[in-house]
Amino acid sequence: MQHLDDSTRTELEAAAFRRLLHHLDEHKEVQNIELMILADFCRNCLSKWLVAAAEERGETLDYETAREYVYGMPYSEWKSLYQAEATPEQQAAFEARQAAKQEKGQ
Question: Rounded to whole angstroms, what are the CA distances from 68 to 13, 43, 46, 60, 101?
Fold first, then answer.
């Protein structure tokens, strides 16, 4: 993508991000803990990254507003409608991933 100008690259990245959000919205059955176990990020991470990106540019974006954008609704609503309790197996896998990261010094 180095052949693209900065504006075009930014537009493509933004379009890909919107597509990712749409994809996650279409697959609400995918739990955040599963994303954390497999990819080490979740919808909440995306929200935090948006806040950080805003801050880097001198803009104000609060976490709850970012989460509402990522989830497509207030987080409390999404959580009550779609978030399942983590299973013991999921919790163990998440803890193992976190421990492995600690060993690597991340």
Answer: 20, 10, 11, 15, 29
